[in-house]
Each structure stands twice: as structure tokens, then as C-alpha cells.
Amino acid sequence: VVWTARNVREDSLCLRVPVKVSTLGWATTMCPARSLITCGTSDGKIRVYDANAQRRPLFELQVGYKVGAGAGGWTGVSDDTK
């Protein structure tokens, strides 16, 4: 699958907002009829895209604050410390 997202809208100073993606995933369990993509960024935001509808995010959720907060993405490693 090849799909290219557009950048989020410019900020209040008309500057381009950098997006540093750290995690991507298909959200097929949320709505199997749509092609939803979840994107976690290193600035602490989760964005949801609909690959069939538009290239800009449907919505954006702030889960951390400051750069480097991370978006809590799943890395595939076990969290067990036993």
C-alpha cells in the first residue's frame, strides 16, 4: 500500500509544523469498513487518518507535552521486568 499524508495545517505564525513519526498502525478494529491509520509522533501527539477520504488527519490528540514526550506507541517488545 502506498499512501502519502499531507502535513498538518500551519501554525498561527504561518510556519510549517514538523511531524516526526515514531509509530504507525492500521486501526481496522475501530471501523473495519474504513482504512484508518493511526500515527504516533515524537512530540506527543496521536493522529488518525482515513486513507480513502483525505490526506490530512481526521483528528489529533495530545497525549504528552514538550518535544520527546512520545505518543505511547507499541514497539513490539514485552513490558515484563520479571
Write a brief caption for the model.
The chain has 82 residues and is mainly beta.
Give a verbal description of the structure.
By secondary structure, the chain is mainly β. The protein is 0% helix and 27% strand. The protein is globular and about 40 Å long. The protein has strands at residues 21-26, 36-41, 45-50, 59-62. It has one domain (1-72). It starts with 20 loop residues before the first strand and ends in a 20-residue tail after the last strand. A four-stranded antiparallel β-sheet has the order 1-2-3-4, with no helix packed on it. The chain contains no helices and four strands. This is NSA1 protein. It comes from Symbiodinium pilosum.
Please outline the helices and strands.
Blueprint: E1 21-26, E2 36-41, E3 45-50, E4 59-62
Antiparallel strand pairs: 1-2, 2-3, 3-4
